[in-house]
Amino acid sequence: MSQAVVPSQPPDDPVGEVVADFVRELLGNAEVDLRYTPVDASSPSDPPSTFVGPVVVSASAVLVDGWTTTLSIGFGVRSAAHVAAVPDALLSLPDAALRAAGRFGPMRRVDGRLGPAVERALRDTVIVELLSHHQGWTDRECAPSELLAATLEYLIELSGTRVESHNLTHGVLITDALTNEPRLTVPYPSGLRDAKRSPLLFDGRRSVLVVDQDGRARTEVQAHHLDRLHPDALPLEAVEREFVDSGSLVALATRQLGGIGFFLREDRSIWAFVDGQPLVIRRSEHWTAFPLWLARSIGDTIGGGAAVDLIVGAALIVSVKSGGAIFAIVADAADVDDIVARKDRYDLRNEFDVAAMRPETRLHHLIEAADLDVQTLARLGELDGATVLDRDGRLLAYGAIISSSDSEHEGARTAAARSLSQAALVVLKVSEDGDVTVFRDGAPVATLLPSGNSR
Fold it and tell me: Are 57 and 91 contacting, i.e. CB atoms less than 8 angstroms apart?
């Protein structure tokens, strides 16, 4: 009786390598491992040697003849609370990535690798698989994978289109919440491609197109009549209104009706929403997960404090606009005595001689920041300079010019954030392109929402 020959060397698998690299890129704060075991061998039970912490989630599939491919994700030594803050949808990434890889097995290689166009298609397919198997679908066996893929393709197509010298925006919700039969069948997106004004009508800011699970455009969600589709709908909250240009109306629609929402921004980025929150963003052909866990991660790092939620919320508001900002948290006000000029110190505003007060210092007395909120902090943060809070959320400075000798070798905002982080507990730098970079101890430790053009 012959025995099966067990392969001795792991296979050459460019498709698997691409999806593993993509998951690393998508989850910038995660550990990702790709390993192969012979089909007849037992699955590996020990964590990857490169992981600092435990495996949080993994999936396995036979993608290469004779081998079982296992893709694992961990979050290092981060707390259980931090891991709990990661959306459930993202925890199905290993399974989605392997399903996508299975579709690309026969693809031809270019010099031993996949070609750029194939890599882009593979990354987009991982996202489609991720959204297709989101638990929000009533019948997950009927998840509209082809519809989601066609919608994404349509949005990418629209992202290169301009009307009257403006880039288009578009909002669409794909949901299985509508059970009645439509009077008229308008297939999406094919039925709207020739209607040039359709993106203008359903711009995602004032109106979101609602598409059923069978790919039929059905109706709209209007920002000023949210109750028409959902009688218990509440108007957008103050913070949500700050994100109208980044799809807050689409997010609200997913919270009310379930399903998957997409928003094409004017900057050509594509945002995908589930359960009322942004999940992933496509910028310049690259995907990244929206950092919903950022506040929890920073809180774990610096020991908590009211300032954490404030600066994270403000940084995310600024990131969806065209400006930039620097936000910092310090343990004590004295920590910035040698870094921030006294004229920029909001907390010292009452210590100045009124007769000799500089114009900038007079402004401190006009700012209402005793009970600081996210919107006010974001507004102050958009001024040139740094905005500094203590751990308890008290405003210490805004518009503070931070000098740095490194500004000759890198962008002024990056150099200032690096210098400030040597005295601060944590610094968030928001670039003009929307990148959010976390600095600690004089060095960047993570970049979130990357556009690739940070300044």
Answer: yes
Cβ burial 197-206 (10 Å sphere, 16+ → b, else e): ebbeebbbbb
pLDDT of 3 higher than 60: no
Whether residue 80 sits in one domain with residue 110: yes
CA distance 363 to 348: 13
To the nearest 5 percent, what fractions of the chain are helix, strand and coil?
A: 35, 25, 40
369 assigned to some structural domain? yes
Total tally of structural domains belonging to the chain: 3
Residues with Cβ within 8 Å of residue 406, at least 6 apart in sequence: 414, 415, 418, 419
Alpha-carbon distance of 67 to 45, in angstroms, equals 16
Domain residue limits at 276: 134-289
Q: How far is CA 409 from CA 123, 404, 442, in A?
A: 34, 10, 15
Per-residue buried b or exposed e for 389-402, using 16+ beta carbons within 10 Å of the residue's own CB: bbbebbbbbbbbeb
The answer to whether residues 230 and 248 belong to one domain is: yes
Q: For residues 415-420, give the mean pLDDT.
A: 93
Exposure pattern of 232-261 as b/e (b: 16+ CB <10 Å)?
ebeebeeeeebbbbbbbbbbbbbbbbbbbb
Question: Which pTM value belongs to this model?
Answer: 0.83
Same domain membership, residue 308 and residue 284: no
> What is the DSSP secondary structure assignment for residue 354, as one 8-state letter?
G
Furthest C-alpha separation in the chain: 101
Does 164 map to a domain?
A: yes
